[in-house]
Write a structure and sequence with these properties.
The chain is mainly beta. The protein has a domain at 21-67: Single Sheet (N-terminal domain of TfIIb). Helix content is 6%, strand content 19%. It is built from 1 helix and 4 strands, in the order αββββ. The longest helix has 5 residues, at 21-25. The structure holds zinc ion. Zinc ion (ZN) binds at residues 29, 31-32, 34, 47, 49-50, 52.
Length: 80
C-alpha cells in the first residue's frame, strides 16, 4: 500500500460503494478514450463514447476491455 506523506493529501473517501465523480473524470475509456460516468443504481462505469460498461469492484473501476460489457453484445453475460 502506498504511504501518504501528508504533503498533498486528498480526501480519499472510498468506502467501497461511492466513487468520486472527480476521480472518474480523470479516467478515460481504454477503448475509445471517451468520458466515463457512474451508472447508477448499478455500480458500473458507463462510457459515454462507446457505451461500454465497466464493472466497479470495491469502488475501483476496472477499465479492462476484456471485462467490459459491449453495448451490442449478444447478451452472453446476461441471460434474459
Ligand atoms: Zn469507450
Amino acid at each position: 500500500m502506498p504511504v501518504s506523506d501528508g504533503s498533498y493529501k486528498q480526501s480519499s473517501e472510498f468506502d467501497g460503494r461511492v466513487l468520486d465523480a472527480q476521480k472518474l473524470e480523470q479516467l478515460a475509456c481504454p477503448v475509445c478514450f471517451g468520458a466515463l460516468r457512474l451508472d447508477a443504481p448499478d455500480p458500473q462505469i458507463l462510457c459515454i463514447g462507446c457505451k461500454r460498461r465497466y464493472p466497479l469492484i470495491d469502488g475501483i473501476p476496472v477499465l479492462i476491455p476484456e471485462r467490459a460489457i459491449a453495448p451490442d453484445a449478444p447478451g452472453r453475460n446476461e441471460p434474459s
